[in-house]
Amino acid sequence: MTVEQKVERGLFDEVMVPCYSPMEFIPVKGEGSRLWDQEGKEYIDFAGGIAVSCLGHCHPAAVKALTEQANKVWHLSNVMTNEPALRLAKKLTDLTFAEKVFFANSGAEANEAALKLARRYAADNFGPEKSEIIAFVQGFHGRTFFTVTVGGQSNYSDGFGPKPSDVTHIPYNDIEALKAHMSDKTCAVMMEPLQGEGGIVSPTDEFVQTVRELCDKHNALLIFDEVQTGNGRTGDFYAYQGLGVTPDILSTAKSLGAGFPIGAILTTTDIASHFKVGVHGSTYGGNPLACAVAEAAVNIISQPETLAGVKAREALFRAGLEKIHQKYDIFSEVRGKGLLIGAALNEKWEGRARDVLVAAGKAGLMMLVAGPNVLRFTPSLIIPEQDIAEGLARLDSAIATLV
C-alpha cells in the first residue's frame, strides 16, 4: 500500500519543469472572485487566471453545463461532430462578422491556425511569393514556435534555433513605418486590438483604420488576436466591435471557456474554404465538454447588462487606482479598456511591478504584471463591487509595505 504524497509547494520544484515560478501558496477552492489556499487564507482575485476566469470561480451556469455534459459524452474526435460544438459555433457567428468557426484548445493553437490559414489563402490566390506576415513589437501571440516568432518579444523566441521566416515586426501605432514597409508580398497583418502582455497598450483610431486600409490595398488579411481582449473583456463582446474595424480572421480563447481550455478562429466562408479536408486539424478541438462550458459562458457574457457592467467596473477600478496614486505617487498613467487594465509605474517605482505583485499576494490579493513596470488587472467580468473595493484596499496596504 502506497502512502499518498502530501501536496506542498516544494513538490513543484521536485517534479515540474522549471519554466514557471509560481507563488508560494496553493489555491484549493474558489467561489466568485475569491479564492482560498491550503491554510484557509482568503484572496481577492484580480488576475482571473490571466483574463480567463471571466465569470469568476465555479459559476453555477458553467458548473451545470460541465456536469450535465460530463454525463453525456466527453470526446468524439473530429471524425464526427457534436451538439455543443455546433451550438457554440452558431452563437459565435450570430454575435460577430464571422460565418465559419474552427475550434482548437488554446489561444496559441488558434493563432497557429490563423497564421496557417492566412498563408494558405495567399498562396492559393496569389502564389507562394506572397508570404510575409507583419506583426508588432511587444506583441504576444502564443508559445508555439510559429506564434512566438510572430510575437514581437525576442526574449521568448530566441535560443531555439532557426525561426520561421518572412516575419516582420513594426512598432505598434507607427503608421508611417507600416506604410513604408507593407507591400504586395504581405499576406497578413497580425495584431492585438489592445496589446496585453506588451504593457496594456491601446491602438489609436487612426492606426487601426490605416492597418485595415493597407490590408485592403495590398490584398493582405487582417488577423485580430482577441485571445485576451475577447469575450467581453473590453466591454464589447469582441474588441473590434468597439473600434469600428472588422478583421478577416479573429482568434479567441481565454475567457471563451471561462476557465475550461478552448480556443477558436472566426472567419468568412471564402477564407475558410482554403482549409479543405485534411489541411488542418486538432484532436481535442471542438471537445463537447469545452464547448458546453463555453456556450454557457457566451450566453452570459453576450448579455447587454454584462457588457455594460464591465464598463461600470472599469470606472470603479480607475477611481480606486487614482486614490492609490494620490496617496503614494506611484503611477504614470492607467491604461487599457474595460477590465483589461494596466497601471504603469512612474520613474520612482520603475522596475518594481513584481515587488508589488508579491506584496499583494501577502496582503490577500491576486493580481498580474505586464512587464517590469506595469501592474495588470484582469478580474472576473462580473466581480462584485464590494470585492473591487476590498481588493483595492488590499493593494493599498501592500504598497504601504514597500514605501
UniProtKB/TrEMBL annotation:
Binding site for pyridoxal 5'-phosphate: 107-108, 140, 225-228, 283
Residue positions binding N(2)-acetyl-L-ornithine: 143, 282
Reaction(s) catalysed (UniProt annotation): N(2)-acetyl-L-ornithine + 2-oxoglutarate = N-acetyl-L-glutamate 5-semialdehyde + L-glutamate
Pfam families, alphabetized: Aminotran_3 (PF00202)
Cofactor note: Binds 1 pyridoxal phosphate per subunit.
Keyword ATP-binding annotated: no
Main location, first listed in the record: cytoplasm
Modified residues (N6-(pyridoxal phosphate)lysine): 254
GO molecular function: transaminase activity
Enzyme class: transferase
Top-rank taxon, per record: Bacteria
Transferase is among the record's keywords: yes
Subcellular location: Cytoplasm
This protein's pathway: Amino-acid biosynthesis; L-arginine biosynthesis; N(2)-acetyl-L-ornithine from L-glutamate: step 4/4
EC number from the UniProt entry: 2.6.1.11
Needed cofactors: pyridoxal 5'-phosphate
UniProt keywords, alphabetically: Amino-acid biosynthesis, Aminotransferase, Arginine biosynthesis, Cytoplasm, Pyridoxal phosphate, Transferase
Description of how the protein assembles with itself and partners: Homodimer.
Extra remark: May also have succinyldiaminopimelate aminotransferase activity, thus carrying out the corresponding step in lysine biosynthesis.
Family membership noted in the UniProt record: Belongs to the class-III pyridoxal-phosphate-dependent aminotransferase family. ArgD subfamily.
UniProt-recorded name of the protein: Acetylornithine aminotransferase
Native organism: Vibrio tritonius
